[in-house]
Amino acid sequence: MGRRRPGAPDDSRRTIAQEEWAPSAGYAPGMHSGENGENEGPGGPDGDRRQVSHVQIGAAESGQRIDNFLLTRLKGVPRSRIYRLLRKGEVRVNGKRTKPVYRLEAGDRVRIPPVRTARRRDLRVPEGVQDEIRAAIIHEDPEVLVVDKPAGMAVHAGSETPWGVIEALRCARPDEPFLELAHRLDRGTSGCLVLARSRPALLALQAALSDAQATKRYLALVKGPWPDGVRSVDAPLRRNVLRGGERVVQVDPAGKTAITRFKVLELMKGSALMEATLVTGRTHQIRVHAASVGSPVAGDSRYGNPRFNAWARGLGLKRMFLHAQSVSLPLENRELNVDAPLPADLRAVLVKAQSGRG
Fold first, then answer.
1. pLDDT in the model for residue 32
2. What is the DSSP code string of 124-136?
3. Looking at residue 241, what is its pLDDT?
4. Under the phi-then-psi rule, with left for phi > 0, alpha for psi from -120 to 50, and beta for the rest, what region is 41?
5. Which residue among 67, 108, 148, 186 is the active-site one?
6. Within its chain, how far is the Cα of 223 from the centroid?
7. Among 24, 5, 12, which Cα is nearest to 206's?
8. Which regions in the chain score pLDDT beneath 70?
């Protein structure tokens, strides 16, 4: 479906591709000036922006969603504030209001209002957290970092979270010139989280993820028995459905295409250890798809089964049993393959489940 580019002639149209992974795209500085056309100085993405600025989009930024561009440009500003700026029309593209899904084009002129942003040196991530995230790096090369994300840690700051993995890494590695998330994981999920160390690497990672060239495998303990013959769940998902006062994702024919492949690794009394491979990457996809066939993930408070969760707690489970075990994706002239072993807390629960305890 076509759409009009803000401030562009009627015949200037683009197609909105289905968005998943919602990467926090990196920023390459553009020219910016004040309302009267006077240069404001760099200001920087890590300082206080006290005047309106205008950013001219170049080829490097072309194709980024405006919300992701602003998230990187205005570091330290909560996502909710970014969307409020867009909703109120304080951010404009070519003089016109725009929606968060709009993809920037070379030559676009973005108006950014005065917004107080956090200076990197003012961000206080506890030293213990910085040490934890340093120790969690399981792969590093000149282009890519892969972190074995601890369960319970958000990937980025939010309205209720002052810092996440990306902020902790930036504090732990202050001399790193570029660090951006290539994708996201739920806060309760542990395992492989990929970050880019350069703008070209970020674009390559995004391309691999959006074109389904990447393979992401997860381990999940689910309620048994797993239904016979179910090796794939192809069920469209719709986000932001209100249920009991909270927003959830649900299977809906009007939703976005979502496909998960499942493989039974081990059947146990009352549970099953599954390998889940994402074909698409929708929010909460594995959790919702597993629940949709009657086998929700253990410890899932949002989509899970209360009795099964109570049983899993009896085995010592203190969080959701979902772990991003591996990621494989093509980069220029090479293949990236990284594995994150099952964490000790989940291994202990699995051993008890295998023994039939509980």
1. 34
2. ---HHHHHHHHHT
3. 73
4. left
5. 186
6. 26
7. 24
8. 1-50, 117-123, 159, 242, 244-245, 357-358
Question: Other CB atoms closer than 10 Å to residue 109's CB: what's the count?
Answer: 18
Contact assessment for residue 31 and residue 91, using Cβ atoms and an 8 Å cutoff: no
Structural domains present in the chain: 17-122 (3.10.290.10), 124-204 (3.30.2350.10), 213-354 (3.30.2350.10)
Residue 317: predicted pLDDT = 98
User: What's residue 207's pLDDT?
Assistant: 86
pLDDT score of 357: 61
- Listed residue (297, 25, 327) closest to 147, CA to CA: 327
Catalytic, 228? Answer: no
| 31, amino acid identity | M
Q: Cα(156)–Cα(68) distance, rounded to whole angstroms?
A: 13
What is the helix, strand, coil percentage profile of the chain, to 5? 20, 30, 50
Which sign, positive or negative, has the C-alpha torsion 249, 254, 255, 258? positive
Nearest to 348 by CA among 358, 338, 337: 358
